TrEMBL record:
<dbReference type="GO" id="GO:0004674">
    <property type="term" value="F:protein serine/threonine kinase activity"/>
</dbReference>
<feature type="binding site">
    <location>
        <begin position="126"/>
        <end position="128"/>
    </location>
    <ligand>
        <name>ATP</name>
    </ligand>
</feature>
<feature type="active site" description="Proton acceptor">
    <location>
        <position position="171"/>
    </location>
</feature>
<feature type="domain" description="Protein kinase">
    <location>
        <begin position="48"/>
        <end position="299"/>
    </location>
</feature>
<dbReference type="InterPro" id="IPR030616">
    <property type="entry name" value="Aur-like"/>
</dbReference>
<feature type="binding site">
    <location>
        <begin position="175"/>
        <end position="176"/>
    </location>
    <ligand>
        <name>ATP</name>
    </ligand>
</feature>
<dbReference type="InterPro" id="IPR000719">
    <property type="entry name" value="Prot_kinase_dom"/>
</dbReference>
<feature type="binding site">
    <location>
        <position position="77"/>
    </location>
    <ligand>
        <name>ATP</name>
    </ligand>
</feature>
<dbReference type="InterPro" id="IPR011009">
    <property type="entry name" value="Kinase-like_dom_sf"/>
</dbReference>
<dbReference type="InterPro" id="IPR008271">
    <property type="entry name" value="Ser/Thr_kinase_AS"/>
</dbReference>
<dbReference type="Pfam" id="PF00069">
    <property type="entry name" value="Pkinase"/>
</dbReference>
<protein>
    <recommendedName>
        <fullName>Aurora kinase</fullName>
        <ecNumber>2.7.11.1</ecNumber>
    </recommendedName>
</protein>
<feature type="binding site">
    <location>
        <position position="189"/>
    </location>
    <ligand>
        <name>ATP</name>
    </ligand>
</feature>
<keyword id="KW-0547">Nucleotide-binding</keyword>
<keyword id="KW-0418">Kinase</keyword>
<keyword id="KW-0067">ATP-binding</keyword>
<dbReference type="InterPro" id="IPR017441">
    <property type="entry name" value="Protein_kinase_ATP_BS"/>
</dbReference>
Amino acid sequence: MSHPQSECNNHPVSLSTAKPLGYGEVKSAKHSTTLPRRNGRKWSLKDIDIGKKLGEGCFGSVYLAREKESRFVIALKMLIKEEINTQERVQQIQREIEIQSHLKHPNIVRLYDYFYDKKRIYLMLEYAPKGELSKELTRFRQFNNSRAATYVYQLSNAIAYCHQNDVIHRDIKPENILLCSRGEVKIADFGSAVHRPASRRTAPFGTLVYLAPEVMDPESSYEHSVDTWSLGVLTYEMLTGCVPFTGDSNTEVAARIQSCEFLLPDSVSSDAGDLICSMLRKTPELRIPLADVPSHPWMRHHAEFSLVRCTAALRDWEDPSTHCAQSSGCCSFYFTDPSSSETSSTVDVTAQPDHLP
């Protein structure tokens, strides 16, 4: 893997030497808008103030941090080397660094740089002050049309950009979408991402309820359109507060995904339902191209296509009184994918699904 920070630091620094940093300091500090260039000098923890923990990951934690000289605020992802104990995990981290460091899009979290010492690998990431989309969904339960459509617009552009650069994210879900202060969203966590090869992928991945049918079929293979499917699931979730395919076990959830039959609540408009259905087609080739998503009628009627208008709408979005009433889980009609000949029983949209083991 080729990267400017390809050599090991010879002088690891204990985390205890880093100066504590509170969120209040970040808000009041006069900090740079860019991370300074290193001119060949390697980063180390001596260069960084460490603040509060922002979240946990599979191999470590993410902290609020600040580069000392410029006061540039970042999210510092610390990966514990002992946890990266197989060749597969090593390759996963290598892919994450290689892919994310080359992606530059306003709706994708930037990976500015990385460094490491004897115990940890440190990823210097763009900081998104409002945290995960999943927490905002928990707060509001569901979003109004304007907010959901605007997020779908931004995400469809970002995912299309990934695909243009031969990258499949493979794990689009609320926990991997971060919110920024001006109303924009950013895709994060490229740990499951891969470069799209000449041959189609077959290895399973991701979180069960967001997986496309072809991912779970051992006789099938998949390409970039698995991200379109996941975006369809996310769109449904933002509008209803639940995912379309649920069940009491992983086996039941997988069967319902394979059948490609789900229910749309009364609160979902016909235009929104049409877009969701166009993304949740069992046959990958029949899914709506991401380039066509912004011109869909629901998007044209509800999405804010400029950051200025997005920021202006933020106050209304964050006012609970403007959001739809909480969904009761009662649904009025089935959607059955015409490309699927299978049928399934009624889906309990209030059930809590499990993740893949």
